[in-house]
Amino acid sequence: MPLIFIDGFDHYASADIPSKWDGGVNSAAINAGGRRGGGALLVNSVGSARKNIPSGSSFVIGFAYWCANGSTPDGSICGLDTGGLSQCRLRLTANGSITYTRSDTTVIGTSNKVLSPNRWSYIEWKAQIANSIAGNSCIVRVDGNDVINLAAGTDTQQYAGNTAEQFHLLGVASTTIYDDLYISSDTAFLGDCRIDTLFPDGDGTNLDFNCSTGNAHYALVDEATPNTTDYTYCSTVNARDSYNMADMTGNANTIYCVQVNGFALKDDANSKEIRVGVLSGANYSYGNSTPLSATLIDVLGLIETDPNTAGAWSVSAINALQAVCQVTT
Fold first, then answer.
1. What are 170-191's pLDDT values in tens digits?
2. Domain 3-184, CATH 2.30.42.10 — does that match?
3. Strand partners, 237
4. Cα-flanking dihedrals φ and ψ of residue 144, to 5°?
5. 3-class secondary-structure state, position 223
6. Are 9 and 40 in contact (CB under 8 A)?
């Protein structure tokens, strides 16, 4: 399951959105009104946030959606872009139904399903970008039910190159809220997903980094929203710091991935990179090495299988893992 990105919007504040999202951030805020009591992304009628993704022609995207305006204006709720230009969009019409468009305005698919205002819906979007798509390659689901299925041969490609490199969330009303987002380069729907956010609650096996204050490493990186008033730091290549994490509660039928988020920056002129990941049993697994700058960024490590078993994650394995940060250059 080649997941690209997930976000439950629970671990950062409005000021940190540009650290996690890559551009096009406008009139967007982290709101406490998530669908299970945590955070959510709130955008108004001119709001937006863009995430850079690996270039591809096929994606599956899912997110929880809430529109608090009973009279919903026509507008895009999300899109796949290339070079900042819209290849295709999902739009919400004035009566609350979804349309599938090429670019922003050319309607290529319509739905009779009307989204009720002031309630959560889970929208999933299977998209293929091509001048002539395959059958069953562009489908929109709402709460597990297909509401749009574009016919084979439909043109979904607005600009040269049948790819997208950005995903966009947009606002269409005075209050539009998103939660529990996933982006995948696969062709399979995951269904209604929830994202649970866990924070460090103890020092782990690796304690190579220095502490800005005190001796408890985890206590310097356990904030619900990132700050630089206290921190761990290191410049030694291959040095690692690891942290025990709070337990996951409740039951889970399927756990698709673990994503580690580490907010980091560098404070000198030399190039520096880090990566984040997990320690499960005696085995490590990391995301990509990421160059740091003087501006705080969110370094991601998305781990789909348990490195201790090479199989799917279980609740017990998640509760036993450690989150790890390693200096790579």
1. 988 777 899 999 999 999 999 9
2. no
3. none
4. 85, 0
5. coil
6. yes
